[in-house]
Amino acid sequence: MTPDLMEAGAERHARAQGLPAGASTESGGRTAGYGRPAVAGEVDVTHGRILYLEDVSVSFDGFKAINKLSLDIAPGELRCIIGPNGAGKTTMMDIITGKTRPDEGTVYFGSTIDLLRHREAEIAQLGIGRKFQKPTVFEHLTVFENLELALKTDKRVKPSMFFKLDSAQADRLADILQTIHLADSVNRMAGTLSHGQKQWLEIGMLLMQDPKLLLLDEPVAGMTDEETARTAELFLTLKGKHSLMVVEHDMSFIRTISEIVTVLCDGSVLAQGTLDEVQADERVIEVYLGR
Fold it and tell me: Which SUPFAM superfamilies match (predicted)?
């Protein structure tokens, strides 16, 4: 969920509760309150890469969380990232989204957008959407209202109060409801959804903003087998239309959705290839099994 969307949802919930604007910061356990920078233009992918990291490093209190990390993702690709705890997966996403600044290295969105020159809120508006493991939806709003709120381009309180969907926006919202398997739950309060449905709703909220790149952290953790299977269907539907980076531990899920898997260890790329290839790599076996 983008920072300005978190703020808008908090303001809307505050109004519904009769509180003054800014009184509520509830949004799935994280607070809001970021700036609203201008949106950049289209992403240049003429060089065949939508995301490019080279020799990225960052240390925390002497511990090197990311160590000369280099990788790239093609437009429309669905890339899975695996690795043991502490491998640097979350820190890598933090760097891409501007939450953490690296000590050195290069991070580009397309060929021309240097992400290290942008703030977190700006990066979200450039077309990079991030979903954390825990769903962050507005539980006191309906499924429809969550998606409607995500579509709005001006999140200030007064404009959002008088916003109305036009026919094209209504059609887009209806299409996304179908995509995320929630068309039959459009008027349900988000707080009554199952864990898996909340995950789908937040993905839908990101899709309403038409991101070029989606970063998804353990999206099927805690889901039922049926929800996991339907999430795989969802991701395969998104592949090609969007680029996806999926951090996940569920190998069966990964096998279903991804052609290329990147293994991180100690903050850098240990191996890359198909799931069968990386699972057969002796270095990967040693990292996971300790032998």
Answer: P-loop containing nucleoside triphosphate hydrolases
